[in-house]
Fold each of these.
Amino acid sequence: QVFKLEDYKPSEFLIPETKLTFNLHPTKTLVQAELTIRTRSGQPPNAALVLDGDELVLRSLAINGKVLDAASYTATPDRLTINELPQADTFTLSIETEVAPEHNKALSGLYRSSGNYTTQCEAEGFRRITYFLDRPDVLSVYTVRLEADSKEAPLLLSNGNLVERGPVESGALDSGRHFAVWHDPFPKPSYLFALVGGDLGSIKDSFTTASGREVELGIYVEHGKEERAAYAMAALKRSMRWDEEVFGREYDLDVFNIVAVSDFNMGAMENKGLNIFNDKYVLADEATASDADYAGIEAVIAHEYFHNWTGNRITCRDWFQLCLKEGLTVFRDHEFSADQRSRAVKRIAEVRGLRAQQFPEDQGPLAHPVRPRRYREINNFYTSTVYEKGSEVVRMIRTILGAEDFRRGMDLYFERHDGDAATIEDFLRVFEEVSGRDLSQFALWYHQAGTPSVQVAMRHDADKREVTLHLEQALAPTPSESRKRLMHIPLQFGLVGQDGRDIAVKAAGEGVEGDVIHLRKRHQTIRFTDVPERPVLSINRGFSAPIMLAMEQTAEDRMFLARHDSDLFARWQALTTLYTQALTQAYRTIRGGSTPEFAPALLALVGDTARNEALEPAYRALALSLPGEGDIAREIGQTIDPDAILAARNALVLAIAAANADDFAKIYEAMAASGPFSPDAADAGRRSLRNVLLDYLSAPAGDVKRAASRYESATNMTDRAAALAVLAHRQSGSPETVAALADFESRFRPEPLVIDKWFQIQATVPGTATVNTVRELMRHSGFSIDNPNRVRSLVGTFAAANQTAFHAADGSGYKLFADAVLEVERRNPQVAARIATAFRSWRSLEPGRQDKARQALVAISQHRDLSSDLRDIVERTLA
Ligand code: ARG
Ligand code: ZN
């Protein structure tokens, strides 16, 4: 079945009130739903009531307290149709269903994780709990009564505020069961419903909102791990304050709870007042979490908290509008992290991620608009296009409007749409209204898939003292649209003078506003007058638009920008472009059977950047990080040979290391830690620079000592895991590497989240031998095909991040992966479909690999009883 945006119709029936009673039991949980149903028209119903279900077992059904006779309804596992309804605009529908949380391995709906009851309802999991109008535009006030065994589940949580709790009386006897009643006063869609029942430890804190509301904060984790939740709690409080200060948004309930579970399909979930998290995004201490983990926790805690306004108070009309809450909330969490850490470093990391994930999606068979118009399986649209590109689109709105009008637009959005299930049109309208601008061309960013490319050339005429910019935009066809319209692309820019400073520019004609060029036509020419000396063009500063930029620019000019551009993002970009050019050139040389060489000026520039103490260490670390194999592949485009890419990249690593060995060794020593561990951005930056240097210093064959000693002396997970990765990736098979891998495993055996790192590091060892390693690790006692984190770390990482092994020329990587995907699929279709997207760039490979990849995809597609999730991905990938 294909769902289409244009088919949207408001529901004939509303559910203003929902009362739920759960009798929690591992294999036989009874769910009683008492729904107040009201017709939208205010007239008696003139059609049947059709409710969504998914694998449901109906136990009983009544309307206004009267049991329905069998002739008046039909119930299947995925639908309840009631044909005979009262002749009234309002009535009460009572439904009893039975579910088995213990057997729910799809981790959607009500399931058990480490013995605890938990739920995941977005997007369509609520219908696996009871029959309902399971769509985001049906908002209801929920009252939830939970009953459970007091020993098995002393903790009973749901959305909103706790109303009542106590033992369940059964005559004079102690029933051994207890109950809790929760009430959430805010009407919400079913996807935001949540409950938790179990035995967990907790940490508590409180927060006073700007207007003086006392909020009780709780984070619930596995017993014994309470201390590891402290960083998440601090991040939560910082998020709450930041949203007040930057967006004027206050929290609105008396409690805010977060529960960490170890079996979770995604990162986390913003259920009203009861966020449920993958424990990977809650638990951290220096011994078990890396700096990247800390940053991830901060970002995800903030993201889910920010959803309280962008997602919960204002939700989505339908799932086509998913980016309305996700793109906007990612933008908000990006801004939060930028404010908490280094803005430039954060921006570079975002763009690296966007290019590594979203660009290949947007340029391959799975491309779709930020706001899709059709889907077969909505779970397959929780993509980096909807999230990350969706965030970039919001960022562009701010660039076009300026910070002030953007904030006024957001204020209007909150004021006008509080309590609504809104659309992208509603969102764009507030910005048009406050700014008086026409955003209709800009709106194409939501409607057209694909990464636009922009070509730029600059000419300087010394006699006329004029600079002319020629810009041209293009957008290739994608599966969603074969013909594209011209986009409105905001490009932040500067003309950099010989002294390294931006020159003040005077533009003749339209298209420039302050430091932003508005590219709206296919070709656009812009003249700047009164420029006596030839400047160097810096464009798409801050990555103001998510495009591919092709600029006619000499290596000398790029080196100049890499040293002097006042925009730190653009400075990093100039260096990265130089790397990319050197790497693609080396790739061709290697394919031609020769040995690549690299420009000494580039190698020197890298050394100068590493030594430049005016730049913070975290920034220098990013500047020293070469484009990944996937980035290089995208640059080459067609008939990719992953082995040659790896060889080219390694050659450049070695050349940089050889040219700068002494300096790198000195900086490596200078970056050594002093004082106690802190996860803050400054210390994390020093560690990251040090670890990047360790990788260079350990690149020459046999240079294993430094990394081995780093591994042994490490006092935190960042350094330990980095040293292990360097050993495994640079000195694979050495006795030191073998010993370190064994040590890591025995040290962290009881820590699944740490063992995930061990899986990841081994799954990304370059070369075809890793196919066997992964096959063996799938039999390791720490691996579990049922656990999404384990599957992603080992199988997912192998396919998504190991170009030379996954794309092994003999097809063995594809075969292993396809088998694993099918095995995961039988239990958890969502996770299987997600990791299967690793095939998306198969058409850009050289013919031999292409053929093998196609065979693997066809083998999956021919499997019997394929889930709609996996079928959707595989068929679109093959199309
Ligand atoms: N709304 C969640 C977030 O962005 C993601 C939940 C998606 N879950 C799913 N099964 N598709 O934080
Ligand atoms: Zn989200």
Amino acid sequence: SRTVRRSADGVVEVGGVPVTRLAEEFGTPGYYLDEVDFRERCRAWVAAFGTDADVFYAGKAFLSRAVVRWLHEEGLNLDVCSEGELATALAAGMPAERIALHGNNKSVREIERAVRAGVGRIVLDSFQEIARVAHVAQELGVRQRVQIRVTVGVEAHTHEFIATAHEDQKFGLALAGGQAAEAVRRALTLDGLELIGIHSHIGSQIFDMAGFEVSARRVVQLLAQIRDEHGVELPEIDLGGGLGIAYTSDDDPREPQEIAKALKEIVGRECESAGLRSPRISVEPGRAIVGPTAFTLYEVGTVKPLEGLRTYVSVDGGMSDNIRTALYDAEYSVALVSRTSDAGPMLSRVVGKHCESGDIVVRDAFLPADLAPGDLLAVPATGAYCRSMASNYNHALRPPVVAVKDGEARVIVRRETEEDLLRLDVG
Ligand code: LLP
């Protein structure tokens, strides 16, 4: 995050609060989130896209009531993909018209809840769902604003950019073969639906702009096809999320202005050549907003050198608070933050306390050779998809999220307790 610095005594501070104080007051493991950084990133996205576009924060990256309030204050909209996320958004006062509902298998209950609440859009993901949402809306006597999620034949993950003719995955309706066009045809005939646009999300942790550009171009081409076939110009397109962040110094992320400029240019150009009015663009960044704003603070418990291999450093959390290393081979960095050290570098693997050997937090890192139990380690860039994917494996208590700002720290999601765990057991 942006307000990290090391003070004269060697202790790292974030938002003006020393990590040693955070550990004492709120404990380890814990997620510590820089609220100023979060708000600045929100503002950067809103400013980059301007008033003729909309930014929807992807709640799956991390959502809490405090986060919803910050988003609201900073002028963002919110993408939710489950009833739980919808409930959190509404409970924290996000106006329903600024919420988009996603998901490839929304239940009738979820759809009813969203339509009743008056969400600004539902993103449709299958033929069944087109009929289902139309039915619910009609029963409730409303015309629900919807987008259709299409798969443009571009799959962009991590550093790779692969254009595939046909996609083999569960989301969306394919442009290739005419599924997407058929979905549009159906949606346009149903009274319960107001089709406002086309949606495309091509992947996550992407650095290469080319994938976004191909996606934007193909979505605009579909708009032209819809105009030709039905005589309607859909007013909106959503180009999804996916902008990558720096987990290690090898990553070179793009700024929101770069993606805004690239998307607006390509959409503008394609529309001009097709004779279309430019649609209103929206995007759905999750990771790029919240990812860099938080780090996980751990305490070292054991240090175990394996002769000729590496040193295993066990911390008091692990795969229950960060599954990404085990699940995606994700790379993280780690630093000793409770003191400085003049000791030489020691090839280390930072592991958790769970009962399996795949419980790795940071696969390869150099830590000072005098590392010892009681030292505090910070793993940066854990704001996205860590607390939101945390589990109770081994009956771990999920760590708190603590927001720091101007020398103050406050809990925005409290640590779980044994009572929380036991409350679910019946009998
Ligand atoms: N919009 C849609 C429709 C999405 O499916 C996603 C992410 C986003 C927006 C936000 O993408 P972002 O800007 O955060 O990359 N658990 C994985 C990431 C899964 C992303 C799923 N969809 C991880 O930890 O890397």
Amino acid sequence: TSLKESFKNDFLIGAAISNSQINQTDSLTNTVLIKEFNSITPENDMKWEQIHPQKDTFYFDVADKYVALGQKNNMNIVGHTLVWHSQLAPWMQDVKDSITMAKNIENHINTIVKRYKGKIDTWDVVNEALNEDGSLRTSHFYEVMGDNYIALAFNLAAKADPDAKLVYNDYNLWKPEKRAGVVRLVKKLQEQGIKIDGVGMQAHWSLEGPSIEDIENSIIAYSNLGVKISFTELDVTVLPNPWDLNGAAVEQSYEQFENDPKMNPYPEKLSDSAQTQLAKRYEDIFKLFLKHKDKIDRVTFWGVNDGQSWLNNWPIKGRTNHPLLFDRNYEPKKAYLSVLALKNK
Ligand code: G3I
């Protein structure tokens, strides 16, 4: 059996795939990918700086391969992400007037969404537009256009492919203040008659938090808006958080921890007790997902296996993290078994 088979009547099971996985230079990962998952997200290759590096230059080679891989394997295909202040192409950072910026967003969305019309099923249209307190982030887009850029992006995407599902995607969406911000954002779009189909909760979580209750309250709040919820970037870090140890003073100076063994307690292999903790955490999370399966479209892991995870380098470089269901040797972990056991009793 597999994840995708086990949850086929509940929600899609996805994974973010890296450049080398798209290019199939990593064949073992692709074996696991195809067996276990029925949805894919490109971890980096459709971000603005990658796909639209200059005003008049689009780079579609990798994105085309990505879409072909998904089609060949009958997968749900996610586009990530149309409008995000991070990993934005440098030429866009230089645009300082709203009319030019709107034209550039229009060209960006029309060109990309139309190219993959009927092939890409779901778009992360706007990514990370909110601050932790739920107010709008003063990103480059916001500074130039105010919040108009959000409505513009959704409108353009809906016109370019009326059948694609359109998602607002962000992290820490379990937080009550940020949750209120999402509710305001979605309601405002709806009041303007603009199509939005889903909220994407990124789900970069840890063994300790967020609480199941906070996650559940967000699922219910978003579902009450009439949109579907996707968990778009699920992983569970097992490593110590520098903020917890040293408080706010740490700020951005993570370099000081780079070779600190305290910060990298499982350099070879995750301990048995941590394996058990991770398995329990994933079990609790998936129990919640199953409880609300009528509200949830998709659960996507941010990577296929631990070796691929961005958490090996964030916020401290060079650590050995173990946040996913498959280990570095592509072996299913105890957490994989605990998730499957929920369906195969
Ligand atoms: O490809 C270059 C390589 O040529 C270069 O030698 C190397 C040196 O730094 O960098 C490589 O690019 C890196 C890229 O990942 C591919 O590995 C970038 O530096 C690095 O910044 C980038 O990190 C990605 C990050 O987004 C950027 O913000 C992570 O892989 C990716 O997992 C992460 O994903 C984001 C989601 O898109 C949005 N939500 C949060 C999530 C985690 O941060």
Amino acid sequence: MDRYAVVGNPIAHSKSPQIHRLFAEQTGQTMSYEALLAPLDGFAETVASFRAQGGLGMNVTVPFKLEAHALAERLTPRAQAAGAVNTLAFGDEGMLGDNTDGAGLVRDLEHNLDCRLAGASVLLLGAGGAARGALLPLLSSRPKKLVIANRTPGKALALAEHFRGLAPQAPLEACGFEGLAGLDFDIVINATAASLAAEAPELPPAIYASGSLAYDMMYGATPTAFLVAADRAGAARLADGLGMLVEQAAESFALWRGVRPDTTPVLAELRRQLA
Ligand code: ATR
């Protein structure tokens, strides 16, 4: 049996095994997918042991995405740009590291939410790993403008500087939250960790253009603090990150198996379970 796994710490609550089992069922692929808890100081050993047992690929989650980036023998351009790896594929040519998070976000926006990035003004909140992982796929979708805003402005400026090096023509700007005063956006994406603490970034009023979408990479049974605040601030549409979770998984599945699953019924099933 072809074996895959997700590795993290903690891992018990990961939805990846269920998502990949649904994909496998739907596409008729014979494979297994398990959840592996790696000790905090034992990521590389856990990967090596799974590979030695015949494992073909892994998803990598918190807190090992940077270590996976360092461990991979080859990197896709998007993993290189993200500085983090969420997907490993073990082939004859060594260990390939990819990052499907940003592509999953873009696919959720464009395919599931029918929200066009091309020509849109986009605000990306946060300058940590989640924001960095999304940047290259977002810029590749040709927004009119992309502003990175962060509570600590210096981090946003540094991130923008880094990506201007990779994509010199990109319409990329950066600032602190106060620097957003007077601006409005078609798409506002929350890539901060604020929702984990039931907090929302403190944004100036009127950043939501008419018809705009507020998107939180986090998700939960009830709307996140960011989405509640966005609703009050006049965002026309609200979306959480459950679709991104399913889409990044589909992207990994396609890389491993060469088949792209239909995410719609899987997302519907996960949404039903969340309620
Ligand atoms: P991740 O890998 O999830 O992106 P991270 O690298 O620790 O996590 O980054 C967390 C991000 O969330 C940062 O952009 C952080 O802002 P600072 O750089 O100013 O710390 C942001 N963040 C966390 N809590 C926040 C809050 N309550 N309001 C606004 N931004 C917050």
